[in-house]
Amino acid sequence: MSITRALLTSLLISFACTIFAETHNYEFKVQEQAVTRLCRNHRIVNVNGQFPGPTLDVQNGDTLFVKVTNAAPYNLTIHWHGLRQLRNPWADGPEFVTQCPIRPGGSYTYKFTITDQEGTLWWHAHSRWLRATVYGALVIRPKSGSTYPFPKPKIEFPVILGEWWDRKVISVLRQALFTGAAPNTSDAITINGQPGDLFRCSSQGTTRLSVNKGDTVLLRVINAALNQQLFFSVANHKLTVVATDAVYTKQFTTNVIMVGPGQTTDVLLTADQQPGRYYMAARAYASAQKRSF
C-alpha cells in the first residue's frame, strides 16, 4: 500500500510539473539580406530578416518546436549552444554529427525540452562560418511559481557581442583554408549587430538602452564572436555577476567581465550615477590586433 501511495504521489508531482510547462512553436526562415555596415553594402545570411535573429523566451521545462526553412544558398544547421539535450541529442545541431545539413530549399524541425536550466544561452548556425551572422539569444526563465535567486530586475536586456568582416565570411574562411594561414582579423566588434559610434558610418540603430535612475538592469551578455575573447563593461558602473552559461553563480561585483566565444554571462547593473549617457563597450583580448573600444 505504501509503495502504491508513493508511486501515486510521484505521478501526481510529475503531472503537476507537466501542467506548468508550455510548448512553443517557432519558424526560422534563413535567407540572404542586404545590409550596410562600415560604409559598405553587404549581403549576409540571417534569420527572419533580423540581425541578430529572434530571441527565444521560454521557461525551464518548456518544449520547443523550431522549423528551419533554408532559403539561403548554403547548407546549414542550427545549434542550441550550451543546452543539455538529455532526451533529444539528435536535436543538438552540429552538421554531420547529429544530422545532415539542411540543403537550400529544404526544411527541418528541431524538437527539444529545456531540462533543469535557467539563464542565458544562445543559438547559431553550425556550418562553416555562417554563425558570424546567423545567431540569437535563448532566454530561459524559472518555472512558474519560482523566482530568480537575486532581486528581480526592472529591465532585462540581451547584449550580443559579435564580429564583423568587410568581406563575405565564407570568403574569409576559404582563403584561410587555401593558404593555411590564420583567418583575417575582423574589422569591427558589434553589439546587437551594430558597430559602435566610434566606427565609421555608425548607424542610428546603434544599440541604446534607456533606464531610470535607481533601476536595476539584468544584462544577458553573449559572446557570439567567432574567434575573440571579449572584455565588456559599462562606463562608471559596477557589474554584479549572477550567472554564467545558464548556471547561477556565487555573486561578485566587478568593473569588467571577460566572455569567451560561445559563453554567456548574466550581470546586474544599478543605474546609480547621474542621468546621462554611458557607453557599453566591448574590446578584444590583447592578442587581437586593431580592436578598440
UniProtKB/TrEMBL annotation:
The keyword Secreted applies. It is found in: Secreted, Extracellular space, Apoplast. It is an enzyme of class 1 (oxidoreductase). SUPFAM superfamilies: Cupredoxins. It comes from Deinandra increscens subsp. villosa. InterPro entries: Cu-oxidase-like_N, Cu-oxidase_2nd, Cu-oxidase_fam, Cupredoxin, CuRO_1_LCC, CuRO_2_LCC. This is laccase. The lineage of its organism: Eukaryota, Viridiplantae, Streptophyta, Embryophyta, Tracheophyta. Keywords: Apoplast, Copper, Lignin degradation, Oxidoreductase, Repeat, Secreted, Signal.
